[in-house]
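Hey, quick one: can you model this chain's 3D structure?
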Amino acid sequence: MKKAVSCSLMKKLDQNTIQKMGIPSLVLMERAAVKTAEEIEKILKNRKTEEKILCVCGSGNNGGDGIAAARILFLHGYHSEIFLAGDPSHMTEETKQQYRIAQNYQVPVVNNPEWQEYTTIVDALFGVGLARPVKGRYADLIRDMNLASGWKVSVDIPSGINGDTGEVMGTAFSADMTVTFAFRKAGLCLYPGRKFAGKTVTADIGIYEAAERMDPCYLLEDSDIKELPKRSLEGNKGTFGKVLAVAGSSGMCGAAYFCAAAAVAAGAGMVKILTEKDNRIPLQMLLPEAIINCSEEPKEWEKDLDWCDVLIIGPGLGKSERSRKILSWFLEHNQEKRPVILDADGLNLLAENPGWRKVLGKHTVLTPHMGEMSRLTGKTLPELRKDRISASRELAEETGAVCVLKDACTVTASSDGTVWLNLSGNPGMAAAGSGDVLAGVLAGMFCANLENNLFKPDKAAALGVYIHGRAGDLAAKTKGEYGMKAGDLLPAVSEVTGYGGRYEKI
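Sure thing. Here's the predicted structure for all 506 residues.
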């Protein structure tokens, strides 16, 4: 597990290292330049072209990183040049010093670069300190850099990308690789920032966690899957968790199948599906492992609720009066606070019945995609895209629930402000039924947590999101991103959850 940081926290950590730890700013700048040059050289050593490198540098410390990187590459034998895009009179003291050093070593400086001459362009314009949209000559400069044919590298963050939200601030540099320092910035995880960053490398330059509270923002890795508890040798199908999926309206048995099958694939010991009568036969054929109940009687629902350990409500449920009645009944009668995964039409019904929010809480996981999030919050899609983290935190704080905002980078937020950003998955997962599979995987994670209680609800949900994405990555290897469908995720989920110790890599 790694941490991501906001720009404001990164600045505090940087100052803490300088002022409290006693490491001079110029030393940190030199380390950043060394790491940047190292990552560039790893790529260039395998290229057979004659290299010509241009480092485009601003007047702030990001520009100083770029100037120093240009000097290091020059001294390593590369044809490396500097283009000072910022006003020299506005340079920080550290950047002035780096420029003097570069002049002492006679690193070439150009004033009117011919962009197509360069095989590599290094963006060191703004860094994480950018606070306003890029306009005027800087916008023109970034457009020229983007149109150049050379391989492109950003120092710390692509210029023009908001380091907190991933938003494009007017215009932004489109990098093939970004070398960021100490911690990955949230804006390098969220789209479109992640797309503009290309491959992101996080380099250690000697800035570490300070004594003050870090931003509670986390990134899961494959090693975190090993935290899933091993099956008890004395266990049975009942002890490994019983999932009740309230899902599937008439003609929508596919959603019920996918969420139930995914719960089985993720480790649930038993699964029951409460659905409409005309779904019984197809579901029994599709998933003979599941128990099917088509009762319309609350007395029978009460037996199902007493039986289960985890609830999934909503996939394919529809918004009929029957669906509203079922959802209302289960939310109000779940007095023992069993974990509830509220998905799809469950969320749409919740948006139409805001009074139900009073029965939500830490035991509830809300899984909206952006459209459902808009209906739940009243915010427009552009407003949500502007700051997904804040929107997720606000909904979690308001309801007390865990919010899983499904997107290209899914954001999981808890009511205490903790956030998890997901880096697994691929565009092939944008297919009908993929969200239903996620609901089942989340239920499986809560089943795995029943006996040991290793994870708080937010981490259990975040781990489910990560596993779902890794299953998508596995499926893409054999099916391709164009040919993937939701059913391809199911066997991959089983393989990923079986990772702990049995596979070197997923």
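One thing worth noting: The chain has 18 helices and 19 strands.
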